Amino acid sequence: MFPGVTRRTLISGDRLMLTEFTYEKGCHVPTHKHPHEQISCVIEGKYKVKIEEKVHIVEKGDSYLVPPNMEHSQHAIEKTITLDIFSPPREEYR
User: Fold this and answer.
1) What pLDDT shows up at residue 88?
2) pTM of the entire predicted model
3) C-alpha angle 81-43-70 in degrees, rounded to nearest 5
4) What share of the chain is helix, strand, coil (3-state, %, to 5)?
5) Sheet harboring 80-87: ordered strands across?
6) For residue 15, what pLDDT is reported?
7) Cα separations (Å) of 91 from 15, 26, 29, 63, 86?
8) Nearest to 86 by CA among 23, 25, 11
């Protein structure tokens, strides 16, 4: 995906997709947007997520929502693992 980021699609249905992302410490996912609604839950670690102009530090046990077509980026403060739900499923992740 990006240097230091790996993705594994766990399951996908007609309207939902569950993926696991691993972010190595210090890696960065540049600002992007997509037409999918996204919910992310941090399983391990800590990272900074910027959604539009708001910056949040999220860590184990935290979750957040990215509405469709909203710009967002991530920066791993520690090695971080998240579970992400996309609706509709992202075809490029199947």
Assistant:
1) 98
2) 0.94
3) 70
4) 5, 60, 35
5) 5-12, 17-23, 80-87, 37-44, 63-66
6) 98
7) 11, 28, 19, 23, 10
8) 11
- Tell me the two tokens of residue 45: 């670690």
Peptide bond into 3 cis (omega under 30): no
Q: Which CATH superfamily is domain 5-81 in?
A: Jelly Rolls (2.60.120.10)
pLDDT recorded at residue 63: 98
Amino acid at 8: R
What residue segments make up the domains of the chain, in order of their start? Answer: 5-81
How many residues are recorded in the chain?
94
How confident is the model over 5-47, as pLDDT tens digits?
Answer: 999 999 999 999 999 999 999 999 999 999 999 999 999 999 9
Average pLDDT over residues 61-74: 98
What tokens were used for 94? 């199947």
